Amino acid sequence: MSNSIKAIVIDKQDDNYTAVLSTINSDDLPNENVLIDVLYSTLNYKDGLAITGKGPVVRSFPMVPGIDLVGTVTSSDSAEFKSGDHVILNGFGVGEKHWGGLSQKAALSSDWLIPLPANLSPKQAMQIGTAGYTAMLSVIALEKQGVTPESGEILVTGANGGVGSFAIYLLSQLGYQVTAATGRMEQADYLKSLGATNVIDRNEFSNPGKPLQKERFAAAIDSVGSHTLANICASLKYGGVVTACGLAQGMDLPASVAPFILRGVSLMGIDSVMRPKADRVEAWKRLASLVNADYLDKISTEINLDQVIESAEQLMQGQIRGRVVVNCQS
Predict the structure, then answer these.
(1) 259 upstream amide cis, omega within 30 of 0
(2) What's the pLDDT tens digit per position in 57-72?
(3) In this structure, is the dihedral angle defined by the CA atoms of residues 230, 231, 235 and 236, taken in order, positive or negative?
(4) Cβ of 35: how many Cβ atoms within 10 Å?
(5) Which H or E run contains 145?
(6) What is the pLDDT of residues 34-48, one digit of tens each?
(7) Per-residue pLDDT averaged across 46-59, rounded?
(8) What is the pLDDT of residue 45?
(9) How would you label 203-230 residue by residue, b for 16+ Cβ within 10 Å and e otherwise?
(10) CB distance 179 to 198 below 8 Å
(11) pLDDT mean across residues, the chain
(12) How far is CA 162 from CA 24, 25, 134, 303, in A?
């Protein structure tokens, strides 16, 4: 039996940064306690940065990118998983510090893996991917802070992005009234098809604003940061909650303490990369119960490993909408 496998490999020699589809030996995989046949991975924005070299994502070379994967365990030294189990991986520095999912095989620590929920197919898990998982973590955080559909309007920023579009869909499925903020108003009908009640221009929030503004929203899910997040905090109703899970506008927060001490506003940070296993299992269990297969097919396209590099360039140029699922075995 051949030990050769196909994988996207990123390397850097002096100033020469390359990403190519390579044939490597499976014996070269990292020394971890679970070996997996990768069924599907995804192409996320972070993967696009890594593959194109447009961001300092990769920490060591050579590197196999891919921050998400779903696959079948082929061998395991862990009591938690056995051969034949289907498992999911999101984050933990995989694709940045550890070889990731854009490969036919992966060697990973059992501490990073969770079981694939029984009512999700492997492909559906990657149609959801880190974007849907992060959105679900944000929704759960709002729920745990007491936000209900009766609380009022929920704002979602970065609405056309992966996290934003999933957040709209999940909140809508749970009965919330959702306002979507986007820089692409021509996509308003699409956002309403996901469940948004209202669509507004992101420019309402993207510039410096007053420390306290009209109370508009019961809660918000923000993937933008900077002035947008500051203005959201200033626009929340008394006792409002905002989850911060991205920094598309910037990682600064030019805000005032006024919303927090005068309106009791809460700002919740959402980390998906190093999240404890129990939180991951809860989020994926909720996703499996909420997400409709037709919705996943509508928002995703499937490619093969040999299309990844070209698709990464298109992703960085804003030419791709929705989720990109990578079939690693075809």
Answers:
(1) no
(2) 998 999 999 999 999 9
(3) negative
(4) 19
(5) none
(6) 999 999 999 998 999
(7) 93
(8) 86
(9) eebbeebeeebeebbbbbbbbbbbbbbb
(10) yes
(11) 95
(12) 31, 34, 9, 17
